[in-house]
Design brief:
The chain is mainly α. It has one domain: RNA polymerase sigma factor, region 2, helix turn helix motif (Rna Polymerase Sigma Factor, Chain: A). Helix content is about 75%, strand content about 0%. The protein is built from 9 helices and no strands. Helix 2 packs antiparallel against helix 3, helix 2 crosses helix 4 and helix 8 crosses helix 9. The longest helix has about 30 residues. The chain starts with 12 loop residues before the first helix and ends with a helix. The N terminus and C terminus are likely disordered.
Amino acid sequence: MTGAGHGPHAPGEDDGLILRAAAGEQAALVRLMDRHGHGLRLFAARYLGSAADAEDVVQDVFVSVWKHAARFDPGKGRASTWLYRIAANRCVDARRRRSFRAFIGLDDVHDTLADEARQADARVGARQELAIVREGLARLPERQCMALLLRAVAGLDVPGIAEVMGASAGSVEQLLVRGRRTLRARLGTSRDSHGEARGRPT
């Protein structure tokens, strides 16, 4: 509907930018990309484990915003939440496509690059824990992983995460609790094993 969002609700900068993009103002879309591109890219890269796939996701997000900006209603939620909801959906689609490619044997190159990235993360002690956390995230159930990344990377609160994921706030709290517990357990196990290895006499 033309002019959606003009009324008693005073839109924030992001809301206003999306409304201007809906009116065909390219500069507004560029400003949105400047404000949110990095965060969306980081979220997608952590979720997918691939910077290249994340770049594709972010491009898809802003193409979708440009095409469908008129659908955004600032009275129903925050602009940033709307952007991350689009990104989350694109990430799920990308992971499914990648799973299919792996199933039919087309993902060998990606697997090699991912292995090299993990090895690079593990070269020094300070970065080993980061590699463990990333691996732990990759092994979490999809919804736990997404909830944790929306909290830690996107900086969304529980209501915002619930809005992105189409879940209740209580469900999101449970996803965060379970995900954090699993990551802590894996990190603790890894620390113990590394400590034992370092403590063995040579």
